[in-house]
Every structure is written in structure tokens, then in C-alpha cells.
Amino acid sequence: MQYRPLGNTGINVSVIGMGGVQLNSSTPDYAVRIVQRALDLGVNYIDTARAYGDSEIKVGIALKGQRERAYVSTKATAITHNEAWKQIHESLERLQMDYVDNLHLHALSDIQDLEQRIGSGGALEALIKAKEQGLVRHIGCTSHLSSVLIEALRRFNFETISIPLNIIEREPLEELIPKCLEKGVGVTIMKPLATGLLPARLALKWLANQPIATAVPGCTTLEEIEENARVGHLPDFTLTQQEAMRAETLWSEWDHRRCRLCGACLPCKVGIYIPDELGSDDVYDHYRTMGREAFTTFNWSRQLIASELVRRREIISQIESCDRCGSCQARCPYNLPVMDMLADLLPAMRDMVSIYEQLWRE
Fold it and tell me: Less Cβ around it within 10 Å: N or C end of the chain?
């Protein structure tokens, strides 16, 4: 495995890390096997969050007795100091750890959100206090918007950031990442496969050619973590001419079909949270990439099945209620066919519900 400095933190991280959101999907035993297989393959950066269901719990179980093998990053969604302080301690308890290597302010949505969280009485004060007490080694922030992270770096010396970057979504390379390099900020990459739209090997190899520290693709199966980690073991990340051409073809194919999660389409009058459904629906990604048979036989967590049945039925109902008013599409800065993209989700979502109903009865 190849390793790179995480900015000025003094940490060297595997160029291919592991995102923990999808650990929420499987049974505890299987999720632990995925994390431990990642460690055996040289992956040493694990990215999880308080908001990722029971992901932190599973990471904690997997690292019990071998904490030193991984750098663990988690995230706090809190707005205020008191909320964040509570979340920090909850995360440490769930992880069964005395400290985390990196703690992010999670999913900064806009400048107003940033101002609330870093202002007086905001969540950042709790992160600073946690660092002073040794509960947190490094402080970072995440967003789907480069503009928000650029402003965050202007206002506070964050040590790491996490931003979507992939063959389709390249905008962070223009200003944000150069600023990070200038300031010694560690760059970690979420959505490296564009939530399953891109082939893993090519997408991760393309990213390894960019000025980043680590990409953290989510892993649902042992086969996925093995495929991802193999890229990190390559002696040379240079794309072949055929790979470079394929990457450009994929960019052209998806540039006007991939949601960037910017939120400009909101609000939706029937309540659809469009960025989640079009841009970051991990369980839908499972269905699309695994295929129906593998999806049906996967080691699903009973807890996830229960929550998905409720959530998925609600989403289906909302999309069915769409009267195609067009406001979401008119606001989209990427000119995506938002209404058609939402409607296209329905057949798969209905099938997912039928599969989960069957599994719940078994």
C-alpha cells in the first residue's frame, strides 16, 4: 500500500482509505470482517461518523485490541458547543476509544451554517476543547461545496477537509485543493466513485493521480474492500491512454446526469430531499451495483431493514406525489433533468421494498 502525508498533521495515510457509512448496512460480524480485512490490506484510514447509524460501533469492535493499526476519523453534526460536546463523548463511547485521530464538523451546508458552528457558543468550541483535553488529535470539516470549505479555511486553521471529488465532480481541483496544499491542510475525498456510478479501479486510480491524501470509498462487501485496496498497492498510478480516454468518456456521459448535492434544487414542495435521493443514496447504490440477486442474499442488518422499509416507502410516496412543477429543475445550476431522474428511481425502489418485506418476514 502506498501512503501519503495528511497535510501537516504528521500522519501518513493509505492513499486508499475506507468510508464507514455502508458498514451500517450489514450484520455486525460481517462489518467487522470488512474492517479487519481492510487493515490486513494496508488500509490505515477509516472514516466514519456519528450520523452513520451503528458504523462507529462496528468500527470500535473491529479495532478492539488493535487501535494502533488505524487512524480513525469521525464527525459531529452539532451546531452548538453543548450538542457537539455530547456527540464527541457519544462517539468515543461507541468507538470504545479514548481519542479519535480526526474529528470533522460534518456537512457544512452554507455560510450561515458555518458561521453558527464556528461562532461564539458553536460546535467548533467543543472540538477545540476536546483537542486540548486529548480526546481529539486533529480538527477538520466537511462539505459538498468547495465555496463553503474555502471560507471555512479562511476563518479557522482546520487541519483536514473532506469534499466530493471524482471523475465527474472535478471542481475542487480549481481553487479549494490548491488552497489546501498552500496551507498544509490534509485533503480526504468522499464520493470517489460518485455513489457507485463509476468503476472502482479506474475511479480510484484517477484520484490517486490528484493532489490528495486519501480517498475513502464506502465498502459493503469484502470483495469491494479488496478491489479498492488493490489500487493502493499499484506501483504506478499513471493512467494508460485507454484509461484516460475512458475517464473522459465517463465524464462526458455523466456530467449532466450526476447530482452534485449542492442543495440548490431545494425546497421541494412535496418534501423530497432531492440531494439525498439523487446524490448520496447508499442503499440504492447497493441495489444498482450488487444486482438484485446479491442484494437479496446480502447479510442485511435487521435494524437497517426495519428503517429502510419506513424510509423507502415514504420516498416512493413523495416521488409519486410530484406534480412536475419544475422548480427544482429550474434552480439546478448543472441543468440536470431532476424530475425525470427522480421518476427513474421508482422501479428500483419499489423492488427494494418488496425484497425487504420478504426478508423481514423470514
Answer: C
Q: Are 45 and 14 in contact (CB under 8 A)?
A: yes
Residue 246 in domain: no
Q: Specify the pTM.
A: 0.94
Query: What per-residue confidence (pLDDT) applies to 339?
Result: 96
Looking at residues 163-187, what average pLDDT do you find?
Answer: 98
User: How many C-beta neighbours within 10 Å does residue 361 have?
Assistant: 6
Helix (H) or strand (E) holding 295: helix 292-297
Host domain of residue 295? 274-361
Q: Within this chain, do residues 190 and 323 fall inside the same structural domain, yes or no?
A: no
Segment 74-118, tens digit of pLDDT = 999 999 999 999 999 999 999 999 999 999 999 999 999 999 999
Distances (CA, A) of 339 to 324, 329, 355: 6, 7, 26
Place of cell 488505524: 70
Q: What share of the chain is helix, strand, coil (3-state, %, to 5)?
A: 50, 15, 35
Give me the sheet containing 100-105, strands edge to edge: 18-19, 45-47, 71-76, 100-105, 136-142, 160-164, 186-190, 214-215
CATH number for the domain that contains residue 187: 3.20.20.100
Q: Tell me: the pLDDT tens digits for 57-82? A: 999 999 999 999 999 999 999 999 99
The answer on 217 and 309 residing in a single domain is no
Question: DSSP letter at 218?
Answer: B
User: Which three-class secondary structure state does DSSP give residue 336?
Assistant: coil
231 and 321 together in one domain: no
Q: Which residues contact 133 (CB under 8 A, 6 or more apart)?
A: none
- Together in a domain, 288 and 215: no
CB 168 within 8 A of CB 255: yes
Say which amino acid occupies 172. P
Report DSSP state, residue 239.
Answer: P
Q: Are both 124 and 207 inside the same structural domain?
A: yes
152 within 8 A of 143, measured Cβ to Cβ: yes
Which residue has cell 444498482?
288
Instruction: Render pLDDT for 225-282 as a digit per residue (tens, 0 to 9).
Output: 999 999 999 999 999 999 999 999 999 999 999 999 999 999 999 999 999 999 999 8
CA proximity to 94, closest of 19, 20, 191? 20
